[in-house]
Amino acid sequence: MSTFAKPENALKRAEELITVGQKQDALQALHDLITSKRYRAWQKTLEKIMFKYVELCVDMRRGRFAKDGLIQYRIVCQQVNVNSLEEVIKHFMFLSTEKAEQARTQAQALEEALDVDDLEADKRPEDLMLSYVSGEKGKDRSDRELVTPWFKFLWETYRTVLEILRNNSKLEALYAMTAHRAFQFCKQYKRTTEFRRLCEIIRNHLANLNKYRDQRDRPDLSAPESLQLYLDTRFEQLKIATELQLWQEAFRAVEDIHGLMCMVKKTPKASLMVVYYAKLTEIFWISSSHLYHASAWLKLFTLQKSFNKNLSQKDLQMIASSVVLAALAVIPYDQTCGASHLELENEKERNLKMANLIGFNLDPKLENREVLSRSSLLSELVTKGVMSCATQEVKDLYHLLEHEFFPLDLASKIQPFLAKISKLGGKLASASSIPEVQLSQYLPALEKLATLRLLQQVSRVYQSMKIESLSLMIPFFDFSVLEKISVDAVKNNFIAMKIDHIKGVVTFGHLGLESDGLRDHLTHFAESLNKARVMIYPPVQKASKLGEILPTLGEVVEKEHKRLLARKSIIEKRKEEQERQLLEMEREEESKRLKLQKITEEAEQKRLAAEYEQRKNQRIRREIEEREHEEAQAMLEEAEKRGKSKGKKKPILEGEKVTKQTLMERALNEQLRERQEMEKKLQKLAKTMDYLERAKREEAAPLIEAAFQRRLVEEKMIHEREQQQEIEMSRQRHDGDLAEKNRLARMLDNKLIFEEKVISRRQAEFDRLRMEREERINQIIQARRQEREAMRKKIFFVRTEEERLKRLREEEEARKHEEAERRKKEDAERQAKLDEIFERQKQRERELEEKERLRREALLGRSTDGPSRLSEARPLETGAAAAAAPAPGPGKYVPRFRRERVDGGGQAPPPEQDRWGSRSDDRPPQSSDRWRSDDRKPSYGSKGWPSARGAPRDR
């Protein structure tokens, strides 16, 4: 690394090296100086060094050196003298452009010379092989080698400058100018690949600018000047993208403009918005988004009508016709019919995004906005007066397609208008952003719209029609194209029709009956009737003999079925687990194979790159050696010629090895010796000229003094003469002015009279106008006062009505709430009563069961002597025994409670019929049995609780 005490020494050393042809060493010396930390204070010498540095970089096409040097120089002069950096960058771009232009002018076939897909790609392998094999290069290859490298370097220059200036607030204008020049470069030479890269670079610069907001020299986008520069750059990008027909980049540029405006919350000027909407019309037409194309045309028409004062009536009429035809070109049905939920969501998001681009809303609220549609667009055309500005042919066409009903001759009525519209259009005189308007581009869409309208109208009149007749009615398309149009319309529920090619008939239907819900209505009706029949008359199930023999067979089969299902599920899970493991193993093997293949490919690529780099270095080294040998030979011949002309001896000794370094050292020594001799001669000549000049001045001094005195006398005489002439002329002008004043003095009275008349007339006119104005103002004030009074009354009435309705609603809600609470309370009370009745019923049942159990135990305890007594008692029964007796017989069974009554002196109850059919005293009455049977089956209410009707009565 070279070190210098002063920057001037480095510049001087570089010039010396350039003089002897060592440009690489000179460039390296300057590069070491610029990148050194010793010279970080800006001075004028550094600017001169940078000029020389960029010149060397351009001559040798060293873009990387230029970028490093400019970055270091930016650090030096950013805060001290940023204008110096601007001058250096301008000089750098000027030199690069000049070299590229020189190379282009030298090439005879520009298109063939620039037939390269990518300016940043290296040479292809076949080009290298061709350069090694072929000895002589053709003209095309020489042109390619001459022009392409310089254009690569120019493209690299633009990228370097944009990278250096991307976050510099003091050089925003230079950044914008560089971007514009890069755009023009891509446009002039049709460089589409470089244009895409340039757009991406600028987009990334803006994204980083918004991401890193804490940078010191970051441009402020809220400033009007900065915002205007960035907007101009994006609009230029949009123009060039549309001219190069890069529609995707054009749409991205539109998104960039919209994002920039949303970022700063400010709408650009009307002139820029005209360009914005003009390009949007082209983009949406290319992408077949006819609805948004028409909406963009409408916005463009509004802007032109409002802000372009030089717009002629003819141009306005052409633009209005384009708006109407673009709106008519929109398909009259929704194309999202039958789409999935995901597709509908994506389409909704896309529509809202494009609607934002057209409406240019800086803070959109998507949930409150209406979706753009064809009907709303046509109604907006009428309300905004676009229809009144269009031509008569367009108005008639709109009326026929949207409002008339001609199912048979609609196409024949439309054809003359389409023929006239196809001839309309051309260049516009005053709308600079819209160079021309061609209405013929809408003819295919209008023909399709006319076909759809005719099919729609025919379907309302006819049920069927022959294919030949329908083809004759629609002369725009063949029947195959007509069939495609009709299929799309039927798919989107615009019309209902079927084509029978066997019979040659087109059948029209009704959309209400042909919908998806009613298409299979007879089938659904038959299925419903079948289900109802099965419910009314269920099929008879035959009893299974096997079920009688084996009652538990169903349970066994069910258990076995469940076991088999569980086993099957386990087997399925095992299979799935095994398949998953196999897939995992295959995936791992595939990933290992891909990794191994990737490693192999990378190794092969590294090997090829190393071989290519080695061959390249060998070729460069060989070329350098050949070039040095040729330069050494040339320098040797020049030294021999110089030695012969001066009569000197041969500078090279016999047998001495001739090298470039030796010759350059000798040439430097020779030049140094010649320079010293020349300096001595110049010093001698300067001394001689000094003596001669001193002698001349000594001889000329008295002559100059004498001439000066003569000049003083002459100028004094001239001054006195001119002073006298001025006095005389002043006296004459004064006399003339007095005469003129006396002549005009007699008209002073007339002047005063005329002045009074004018003042009085104007005063009367002023009083009259003031009275009229005051009267008009009073009328307006009175009208506004009445309007405000009416509005206040209306607001008071509306507010009173709202309060009354609100009070009624609150009362109704309170009433409903009280009713609900009352019902809940009644239900709770009812439920409590039912619970109490149920508990009492259960208690009674328990008591009755206990009594019954005790009675049965008593009966079962005396069953041993019952039969003998019964057999003894039966013969004693006679007709007289049926009468009342004071006491039972000695062998008759008497219950305990009856015996107690008898022993107590009470009368015994009458005999009763026993349980085997005879009446005896040992059986309670039948009514008690009936009561017990009713006791065991209490009735239940509607809620499952026993009702009071089925509760037992107390005895």
Automatic annotation (TrEMBL):
<comment type="function">
    <text>RNA-binding component of the eukaryotic translation initiation factor 3 (eIF-3) complex, which is involved in protein synthesis of a specialized repertoire of mRNAs and, together with other initiation factors, stimulates binding of mRNA and methionyl-tRNAi to the 40S ribosome. The eIF-3 complex specifically targets and initiates translation of a subset of mRNAs involved in cell proliferation.</text>
</comment>
<protein>
    <recommendedName>
        <fullName>Eukaryotic translation initiation factor 3 subunit A</fullName>
    </recommendedName>
</protein>
<comment type="subunit">
    <text>Component of the eukaryotic translation initiation factor 3 (eIF-3) complex.</text>
</comment>
<keyword id="KW-0396">Initiation factor</keyword>
<dbReference type="GO" id="GO:0071541">
    <property type="term" value="C:eukaryotic translation initiation factor 3 complex, eIF3m"/>
</dbReference>
<feature type="compositionally biased region" description="Basic and acidic residues">
    <location>
        <begin position="811"/>
        <end position="859"/>
    </location>
</feature>
<keyword id="KW-0175">Coiled coil</keyword>
<dbReference type="InterPro" id="IPR027512">
    <property type="entry name" value="EIF3A"/>
</dbReference>
<dbReference type="GO" id="GO:0003729">
    <property type="term" value="F:mRNA binding"/>
</dbReference>
<dbReference type="GO" id="GO:0003743">
    <property type="term" value="F:translation initiation factor activity"/>
</dbReference>
<keyword id="KW-0694">RNA-binding</keyword>
<dbReference type="InterPro" id="IPR000717">
    <property type="entry name" value="PCI_dom"/>
</dbReference>
<dbReference type="GO" id="GO:0033290">
    <property type="term" value="C:eukaryotic 48S preinitiation complex"/>
</dbReference>
<keyword id="KW-0648">Protein biosynthesis</keyword>
<dbReference type="GO" id="GO:0071540">
    <property type="term" value="C:eukaryotic translation initiation factor 3 complex, eIF3e"/>
</dbReference>
<dbReference type="GO" id="GO:0001732">
    <property type="term" value="P:formation of cytoplasmic translation initiation complex"/>
</dbReference>
<feature type="region of interest" description="Disordered">
    <location>
        <begin position="627"/>
        <end position="654"/>
    </location>
</feature>
<dbReference type="Pfam" id="PF22591">
    <property type="entry name" value="eIF3a_PCI_TPR-like"/>
</dbReference>
<dbReference type="GO" id="GO:0043614">
    <property type="term" value="C:multi-eIF complex"/>
</dbReference>
<dbReference type="GO" id="GO:0016282">
    <property type="term" value="C:eukaryotic 43S preinitiation complex"/>
</dbReference>
<dbReference type="InterPro" id="IPR054711">
    <property type="entry name" value="eIF3a_PCI_TPR-like"/>
</dbReference>
<comment type="similarity">
    <text>Belongs to the eIF-3 subunit A family.</text>
</comment>
<feature type="compositionally biased region" description="Basic and acidic residues">
    <location>
        <begin position="912"/>
        <end position="938"/>
    </location>
</feature>
<feature type="compositionally biased region" description="Basic and acidic residues">
    <location>
        <begin position="627"/>
        <end position="642"/>
    </location>
</feature>
<feature type="region of interest" description="Disordered">
    <location>
        <begin position="811"/>
        <end position="955"/>
    </location>
</feature>
<keyword id="KW-0963">Cytoplasm</keyword>
<feature type="domain" description="PCI">
    <location>
        <begin position="322"/>
        <end position="513"/>
    </location>
</feature>
<dbReference type="GO" id="GO:0002188">
    <property type="term" value="P:translation reinitiation"/>
</dbReference>
<dbReference type="Pfam" id="PF01399">
    <property type="entry name" value="PCI"/>
</dbReference>
